[in-house]
Amino acid sequence: MAWDPILWIVFSIMNITLLGLNFYQFLGFSDLEADYLNPYELSSRVNSVIVPEYLLQGAFCILFLVTGHWFMFLLSLPPAYYNLTRYLSQQHRIDVTEVFRVLNAEKKTRIIKLGVYIVFFGLVITRTVCAGTFSAMLSFLFPNNEELDFRTSVLEF
Amino acid sequence: MGTENPNRPNFPARPAVTPFAAQQSATPFLSSGSVVGSEAPPFRPVSTASSQFSTPPFSAGSEGPAFRPPPTSRSNELVRPPPPSASYGPPSSGFQHFPSPQMPSTGQLPPPRTSFTGQPVVPMQTRPPPGHVSLPSQPQPPSVPMGSPPQSIKTGQPNMNIPLSADQHFLPSRPNAQASSPPMGPSYATPRGTFQSAFPGYANMQPNSVAQAPTMQPSSFPLQQGNYGPPAPSTPFLSQQRGYTPGPPMSTPSGLYTGTQMQQHGIAPPLANSQGLAEDFSSLSLGSVPGSFDAGVDVAALPRPLGGDVEPKTFAEMYPMNCSSRFLRLTTSGIPNSQSLASRWHLPVGAVVCPLAETPAGEEVPVVNFATTGIIRCRRCRTYVNPYVTFTDHGRKWRCNICSLLNDVPSDYFAHLDASGIRVDMDQRPELTKGSVEFIAPAEYMVRPPMPPLYFFLIDVSASAVQSGMLEVMSQTIKSCLDDLPGYPRTQIGFITYDSTIHFYNMKSSLMQPQMMVVSDLDDIFIPLPDDLLVNLSESRSVVEAFLDSLPSMFQNNMNVESAFGPALKAAFMVMSQLGGKLLIFQNTLPSFGVGRLRLRGDDIRVYGTDKEHILRLPEDPFYKQMAADFTKHQIAVNVYAFSDKYTDIASLGSLAKYTGGQVYYYPNFQSSIHKDKLRHELARDLTRETAWEAVMRIRCGKGVRFTTYHGNFMLRSTDLIALPAVDCDKAYAAQLSLEETLLTTQTVYFQVALLYTSSSGERRIRVHTAAAPVVADLGEMYRLADTGAIISLFSRLAIEKTSSSKLEDARNAVQLRIVKALREYRNLYAVQHRLTGRMIYPESLKYLPLYGLALNKSTPLRGGYADAQLDERCAAAYTMMALPVKKLLKLLYPNLVRVDDSLVKTEEFDISKRLPLTIGSLDTRGLYIFDDGFRFVVWFGRAISPDIAQNLLGEDFALDYSKVSLSQRDNEMSRKVMKILNKYRESDPSYFQLCHLVRQGEQPREGFFLLTNLVEDQVGGSSGYADWMLQLFRQIQQNA
């Protein structure tokens, strides 16, 4: 039973990383719009994190499946599917030459994704807490982890 | 039918308008008033105030006495006689609309005047200071005059009578007066705002009136002037005045309504019609040309742009200080005042900018050097000083016309204001009088020293390039242009050739012969001798010439058919990246080696009509887009010359040009014997035309509006900054506007195009074009001020962009749908009142829109499907059309077709303007026709043409296969004449060379390919003919109407 809380902590770490990556991209687009970034920098920054984000999200999804969390798996399936189709149609990378044409759409998808990940975050955290209550040891470790996570993600921003 | 009507309608309309003209005169005041508030008197109108005043008013004054007696009856009479009379009758109702604001003032004032009685007095009063003082109250008087002026004009009777009658009538029946009078009011107190708005529209209608306006300055005068009209000379003032108007904050909304209502909606209110109706009718007869399609279409009556592109004149007349329309054209000069209005106008709201358009001699853009003061710009919005800024505070401050911030005038730029508020040094300041200026930019505008003009050539020397003769023609042409390359003695030049290896050439000036270095490691490109590959032309001239002389022979026996295009491109990038410049690529085959190699993905018929169709028109390998982005970043512009007879994937190659502000030249199946002249001319033009280097362009516009999307060949560096490594006169860019605020409160929106570039002479310069456009509150007004050319230009760019994300069919449908929506909206405005069932109505300004829309759908990038155009041709045409200026685009869409045999036989001079409709019905079997779309000529020989003509023109070849015959000058009168005509056409548009194709009637498939598919009015393949198209549009317009 001990591995369950650990698993949920892994989930929450992954989730926070996803949130961070997405927020990072979103910030990039906002900066581009405000002219703090030029399209060249933006595309190199965003493109460097897109594939990791897709991989992480895929792992996130598959891990739910492997560990038998059907409900969470089904929930995480749509974003995974979306990522997969983007990737397969080679549309996942930002095209430097046309950034401004897709700027608004890209921002919107980032916002939606952020929303989705936040929902996941809520779910994962509640599950983590629930799992934590079964293990006194972990229940007092948990807040520490949470803090740590927060710090890393904040730093990243 | 349509064509005929327009003129007639105008007449009625005009009378009505005239009054407005008077109003316009008033407007100047308004503007002043609005802007400064109290300043009104000082206005810029440079013209001497004294002259202005005296003439109109006095004349009126003298007339004055006469006026009184005739009063009412006359006025009425006068009004009626003109065609619009009917309209006038109702006018009274019109007043209802205006009611509250104007009425009160009028009520007060009117009496005074009457009491003053001496009509002469009236004029007097108006002129003198009283006008200003009384401003608030006066509104009425102005109105009175207004009414009268129109009358006078119409009747042609002495002005004197009119004014009197007007007064009397008006007082009692204000409504009438107001309608006509509004102009007056505005000049004075608050009403100004309203009037102004109204005016712009009117102004368009009558140019004449404008002239009058300038005289107006004294607020009171306007009315009279309007009537008297004569003082025309001062036209410039009008523009100025308007420009100044921006301020009128107050009444704008109401004013707008009045203007609009009067014209269109006037109808709705029953009585109000007086004016509204008049306007309406005029527009009916004028603008909306009824064509009844029920009983078959009268094809001959459909409107055709046989006169070529018509630039909207009214716009320039309203704002004489605007830049010329060759630089900037708005799709409608009436900017919608609200988002809802903008969304009802279904056509794009935007602009087409051609910042370096060629100017005819005498109209060159003046160059201004602000060496001592630095360039004067607004602190907040960075707008450049322009004719529409206003100086206040004795000349110590200036107000930005775009963001209305008050800026300090630098002490070196200070000049006193004269009594009317105009700078005393106005005449010596082109930046304050001209819409287009060039500033010499100081060092703050440079990130590095200005670059020298740099031409780099990337030449494919594989077997096919040699065999087609391309190599020879190209090297000869480059050699002949060496003297004319811009920027001597700083010009730099360099060459790389490639087949399956890359060849560099050391051109160091100390060498006698160029040294060739071959690099065959394509995976890891390195540059041998990085310093001597790019050399100064004047220093290494002899080496360069030796190279060009030997180039064709060097590769004469080259049997290599591979093409390492991608690696060569990278090598060129490495050589050029320090300086930037222009890269000319001569590509003969599909890139087959190294990075960026392309597949023969070909043109697959099965793909057409599916979701994957558009992928064919996109670059296949991301390498190309990435390279294009890198090129732009390093200020390199790419021009692609493609020559292959087989598929070369122009879609991929062209993207290099698209994102670097370049151009694609495509010579399918190049053979030097045929295409020599074309390549020579176009390459020479490319090399020698004036070019602006390392440029960026930005369009600024007033508060509340924003340019949101840009269309053309360039890359955006930030949301509104267009990066253009090289620009020249043959490139135009389009942008669409959107409204940021739901309701615009200004009367005028200003646009400023600024192009910062390095000239070939090594000077950093800023070219600034400024234009003002009125804000309108009425849809009909927007339609009236529309510019078909600019709309079509935007449409074509949107449609072409759409083809790269969806099917051709979808792109065509989108064009059609927008035209339908626009015309339906227009119909909804008018059809009900006038029972136009069974007729198609459209505004005069858009009468060619359906035809151009049809032509656009039949243009090479959009036409048909798989078999209707080669994929490469489609893509090349698309890249070309994305950059074409308006005039050339319209000519390409609706080419010239002229008959020449008559003038050959007779001695009379050939009339170049006698264009024929583009339908097979125009072709007579006994005739000789020239078809000119700006890119090629097709000379069509009728089957029954007199052998005499054929023999004279073609000599002994006249019976041969025409595909092998070329038209050359022969020693006889006829041949000389034809060549003269062709040359005349060529000279009229030097940006491309029109190669002459001879076609004999009935000679398939050449006739079909060259001519028949380009007769846009005919039904070709699956596309509809002009009449069908109109019927189709008409039906769709009526659905859900």
Describe the secondary structure blueprint for this structure.
The complex is a heterodimer of chains A (157) and B (1041).
Chain A: H1 3-33, H2 39-66, H3 70-88, H4 99-134, H5 136-156
Helix pairs in contact in A: 1-2, 1-4, 1-5, 2-3, 4-5
Chain B: H1 4-36, H2 49-67, H3 71-79, H4 85-88, H5 92-97, H6 99-108, H7 110-116, H8 121-126, H9 130-134, H10 140-155, H11 161-170, H12 174-180, H13 184-187, H14 192-205, H15 207-215, H16 222-228, H17 235-244, H18 252-263, H19 273-286, E1 291-292, H20 313-318, E2 328-330, E3 335-336, H21 339-344, E4 350-353, E5 367-368, E6 390-392, E7 397-399, E8 406-408, H22 430-433, E9 436-440, E10 454-460, H23 463-468, H24 470-481, E11 492-498, E12 502-506, E13 515-519, E14 534-536, H25 541-554, H26 565-576, E15 581-587, H27 622-633, E16 636-642, H28 650-658, E17 663-666, H29 672-688, E18 691-701, E19 705-711, E20 715-718, E21 721-728, E22 733-739, E23 748-758, E24 764-776, H30 779-784, H31 788-803, H32 808-834, E25 839-840, H33 849-857, H34 871-881, H35 886-893, E26 896-899, H36 901-905, E27 928-932, E28 936-941, H37 947-954, H38 973-988, E29 995-1000, H39 1006-1010, H40 1026-1038
Parallel strand pairs in B: 3-24, 5-9, 10-11, 10-15, 15-16, 16-17, 28-29
Antiparallel strand pairs in B: 1-25, 2-4, 4-22, 6-7, 7-8, 9-24, 11-12, 11-14, 12-13, 18-21, 18-23, 19-22, 20-21, 23-24, 26-27, 27-28
Helix pairs in contact in B: 1-10, 1-14, 1-15, 1-16, 1-17, 1-19, 2-11, 2-16, 3-10, 3-11, 10-11, 10-12, 10-16, 11-12, 14-18, 15-16, 15-17, 24-25, 24-29, 26-27, 27-28, 28-34, 31-32, 31-33, 31-35, 32-33, 32-40, 37-38
Biased composition (Low complexity) (chain B): 1-16
Domain Sec23/Sec24 trunk (chain B): 450-686
Keywords (chain B): Cytoplasm, Endoplasmic reticulum, ER-Golgi transport, Golgi apparatus, Membrane, Protein transport, Transport
